[in-house]
Amino acid sequence: MDTIPAHLLAAAPMAAKLTLIAPEILLFAGSVVVAVLGLSRATAMRRAVPFVTALFLAASIVVTALVYRSGAVAESGLLLPALGGYAKALIAAIAIPLVMVVGSSIDRKLEEAFETGRAPFDPIRTMRGEYFAFFLLSIAGTMLIANASDLIWLFLALELASLPTYVMVAVSRGTRRAQEAAVKYFFLGALSAATFLYGFALLYGATGTLELGPMRDALAQQAAAGALPTLAIVGGVLAILGIAFKLAAVPMHFYAPDVYEGAGAGTTAFLGIMPKIAGVLALMVLLSVFGWSGHGVMEAGQYIAVDGLPLPLSAVLWMVAVLTMVLGNIGALLQRNVKRMLAYSSIAQSGYLLMGVIAGPKAGFDAVLFYLLGYGVMNTAVFAVLASLERNGEEVETLDDLAGLRLRHPVLAWMLAISAVSLIGMPPLIGFFGKLALFSAALEAGQTALVIIAAVNSAIGAYYYLQLVAVPMLGQPTARTESVQTVPSAWPRFAAIICGVGVAVLPVVLPQLFDAASSATPEAARPVRANIDADGAAPSPATVSAGSTTDEVPDAKQAG
Amino acid sequence: MHELARSLTQSFPTLLGADEPASIARAIEGADLGWAGLILIFPAVSAILCGLCAILKVKGKLPGAITAVSLLAAFVVTFLLYWNCPTDAPRTIHLFDWISFDWLTGPGAEPSAWRAFSAPFALYIDSLTLLWMLFVTGLGTLIAIYATEYMEGDVGKGYARFFGSVSIFLFAMGSLVMGGNLILLYLGWEGVGLASYLLIGYHYSKPSAVAAAKKAFIMNRIGDLGLALAIFLIWWNYDTVSYDALFAAVAAEPAAGASEWSKAAIPFCLMLGAFGKSAQIPLYVWLPDAMEGPTPVSALIHAATMVTAGLYLIARLFPLFELHPLALPTVAWIGCATALLAATIGMAQYDIKRVMAYSTVSQLGYMFLGLGVGTTFGAVYHVFTHAFFKALLFLCCGAIMHGMAGQLDLRKMSGLRNVPGFRIISWTFLVGCLCLAGFPFTAGFFSKDSIIAEAFVSDVPGASALGFLALFTAFLTAYYTFRVWFRVCGGPVKYEPGDEIHGHGDDDHGHDHGHDHGHDHGHGQAHGHGHGHGHGHSHGHGEWHPHGPRLAINGVLLLICVGALLAAVPSYLQMSGQPNWVQTMVTNSSAIAGASGHHGADGSHALSFTGIEDVHKATSVVASVVGVGGILVALFFHLLNRGAADRLRAALLSNGLTRWLPLLMENKWYVDEAYHIVVRAPARGIGHLLYLIDKLFIDGFVVNGAARVPAEVGRLFQPLYNGALQGYAATMAGGVALIAAWIFWVWLSGG
Fold this sequence. Notes:
The complex is a heterodimer of chains A (about 550) and B (about 750).
Chain A: H1 6-20, H2 22-37, H3 43-69, H4 72-75, H5 83-102, H6 108-116, H7 128-146, H8 151-171, H9 176-207, H10 212-225, H11 230-247, H12 255-262, H13 265-287, E1 296-299, E2 302-305, H14 311-333, H15 338-363, H16 365-388, E3 389-391, E4 394-395, H17 399-402, H18 405-408, H19 410-424, H20 430-444, H21 448-474, H22 479-482, E5 484-486, H23 491-505, H24 510-519, H25 541-544, H26 556-559
Antiparallel strand pairs in A: 1-2, 3-4, 3-5
Helix pairs in contact in A: 2-3, 2-7, 3-5, 3-7, 5-7, 5-13, 5-16, 5-23, 7-8, 7-13, 8-9, 8-13, 9-11, 9-12, 11-13, 11-14, 12-15, 13-15, 13-16, 14-15, 14-21, 15-16, 15-20, 15-21, 16-19, 16-20, 16-23, 16-24, 19-21, 19-23, 20-21
Chain B: H1 3-10, H2 21-26, H3 38-56, H4 62-84, E1 91-104, E2 114-125, H5 127-150, H6 159-178, H7 182-200, H8 207-238, H9 243-252, H10 260-277, H11 286-289, H12 295-304, H13 309-316, H14 318-321, H15 327-347, H16 352-372, H17 376-403, E3 413-414, H18 423-437, H19 443-457, H20 463-488, E4 494-495, H21 508-512, H22 551-566, H23 569-575, H24 581-587, H25 615-640, H26 642-654, H27 660-666, H28 671-717, H29 725-748
Antiparallel strand pairs in B: 1-2, 3-4
Helix pairs in contact in B: 3-4, 3-6, 4-5, 4-6, 5-6, 5-12, 5-17, 5-22, 5-24, 6-7, 7-8, 7-12, 8-10, 10-13, 12-17, 15-16, 15-20, 16-17, 16-19, 16-20, 17-18, 17-19, 17-22, 17-24, 18-20, 18-22, 19-20, 19-25, 20-25, 25-26
């Protein structure tokens, strides 16, 4: 090779960054295509919109695989360079069945009217194109989070993931309740954005940089010199709490039941998983500036690096996790409305996810990423069943509508039952292995109390999840359920079967899935300690690796 | 990720993946024999296909055909394995990694003390395994063919369920016999228990069948507990559950590793398991009741194969039974006592299937006696011959029952050998009876004699008593066997149908309709014993005619009959100076270890009064006399002078000194009743007490109280979720503020 021109060398990080976001660029292009297609006068074109959407998603999986196999990852300079490979594939893979679930439900009545000639074709009134365009945009935003290299990027990616969902909720079904839900979602989302933006601002103030890498180094230096500045801690707390909105975690969980109930079932399925992935990714990326293992404390004149977050931040996460599990599960107990119940249950699930985040990159990240896959499949299966059914043209909402479902739609009933059982965490379904990974990761990180609380909560959760098994399987049909029937489109049922079977079959390739999840957090992803220079002496390797669990984090006050 | 999760994922069968290098090295010897796994795969696939047939509601004999073909395939593979696999030394065929754990013991900082538990899915193939699998798959195939015709009344309803369970049974039995470690054995052990439970309770609408299934299952649980404890103790003491490593550990240094008490506990716990599965005292009571299942099942599972699993366990783990000096004598005495007790009960039963069931218990007792006195060859040979002739006897009973609409009472059938369509049954039945009775130069004669002869010369305490008891039992066996044959097949032609004219499992009719109905095929015999059976008659059986079996049943009867006769061939070869095939098979396996050490020190034996020096010859002569004597007694009482039997019974009953004998025998020595009083009643009492405590205190107070807490707390928070946007926003902002303040005050203010 000849010498490489200097300007190319300088551009290398940017080029690497752009290579890494090739899947997102593809999805952007897809959203434009879909938006235009949706306005077409030809019914076939409009009908093709979901298929095109799915096609772009599938292509983005391929592109992700290609990009992350190339050397671009190593040059990206990201704190968690490999995270995107698994995360993007996961996001796109889960999005495909979600497209099936939503599929033809958008604009269904309008299209019928067009077809029967009751209404003349009017591109202004069609929503399908824009729904799926926004769908792809939100997916792209979620993917971009994994690649965030600075706080601006992270903020924009979070907003790109959020803003389309407000529109999606509003148009997901033609009722006022959907619009009410969208408005609530929008305003509360804005509140949360304000919260984490404030947190980001404080972090900038504490470190003087927006780039995550230098910020991590600055924080590590400050920690090595004494303690983390108050500004950075408060900034971190506010950022965590703001991002908690995406996860529907306490105290930002209030919107979830209303929004889930108001949105159409397919969109609820989307809300049940995609914002959670976004939130988890954002937490992972953001919290890596606090170093996980890169920060440390001074004790007896010696610098000791520890795994895990600074104590205040992990305490906040711990409390949020516990409250989220408890309040989510308790809330779900009282519900007869299935979508509200699932909303509360998804709050509780966020608590479990946070448990893995607390466990940190070494033990917990791969468990969380793996759990997200399982949760995505189970969640989609449950909502796909709901989306497959209607009563007098309206979605089925209450448990009473599902009574005796087995007798009339045995396959749907079985899929619902198997997903609910998996959500409880029963072996040998995927949910069991997800929970096993999370719980054992938390145990490894020394979070015994958290695991006990989570286990108790799982038991409480079994009560309401089992209703999703008992009512359809054992309940007797009533006059009310007589009018429950399947929707005309077979796609939601198809999605229910794919995901329901996946719940049972995926454990067969369990080792491969675990490996894929682990590959997203390789050793290289952990911050280097090169910049730490306390009192001019570089730390010896022995002292750096002395601590291994968060238990050993001495109180920050002593350190100061 | 955490080690636990890692290792659990690894425990998932990675059928598609490549083997670990280490396991390849371990299995290098048997690597080319991986196709032996087909023996297990065929029945497993068949079970799945039968399940699919049941789901798809297939009408027709497809499930039967699937099962018969896959069992035949399994038999062929077994035979090829026997042909290709040198049987001089055991070999382990590693199929795939199954369960594999390792973990650090002791406090974390200690230098690594790894312990491992590994149970690969491996087959342990030696001559004992092959012998067992040959007759299991061979008989399984024949009986499946027989069942395709026998079960035809249930086509559509339970046909697929029946054959699915049979396939499960064959899979489990294969895993039990061929498994390379105790965990696979346990898997098979529980699997055959499950299949047995499913098949005994096949007519699940019949309360007696359900009760019998539960009884079998629960009795077996007691035995299984023993086996589970034994496996745990073995692993605890020897650090392995694989046979090859285990035998090496036991042989290398019998004292190493194992503590004194576990050396006593291991064989006795294993024994408990064996006694449960093989129906020995005190756990034998389930087997006679198991005859509620369809007859092919009784033949396959409850006579020929599954009930010999206990024998297999002891034969396979024979080295472990030499750990404690009292272990084998206990086996011998329990076996002998069971043989005698079951024979006395069998003498007084009227249901021919039940007679056969008790004779099974009795013959199993013989086999345990054989193991106990150290002649593993005799025991295994008896297992082998018994499998054939007892399967034959059961299939004959089944064919009679099939043709006679469920009739099994030997007082209500007579002279079947002259009824058209029943001739093949009668004569094959006779062959089976001759074998069972130990008639000279039949298979049963040779195998039984080798046990009795060894009993006389063994050094087990009370050896000659064992021998004489065994001889006496042989006499009783000959008597009750031919009691059945002379009653059912001999004499004048007389029969009346059973209560299944309206179809199988239709039990409602028999009991209520009285005995005083007129009947066409009536006979004058009084029936005074209404114990248990329904003897009623269905309406309108005037036009009823017995129907003889067709090709499948007759063909299988003839084939097994030939098998039962051929089973004697090894002994003829032995007499002509060639090695006995079965003996060779046993000698080359783990079952032989140290067995020769049990011969009595001096050559003198209890049968020296016959004047024959060789104990085997002496036993042959005495046993022949005893067997023929038993047949002659039966001939007198049950063919020539049938009234005499009843008169004898009446005489015994009228005498105050002797009336206990027929009463005890007919009522099965009141063992069930004793168990009821000693075990079941107290257990029920305790159960009721615990139920009350649970209901009032635990459920009522603790559980319901705890369950109410979350719901009440939830109600407390309900007002927060009022749907108003402002409220939500305020609460969320408040929450953020609270948490931020908390962090600030607790961690940061002091800093």
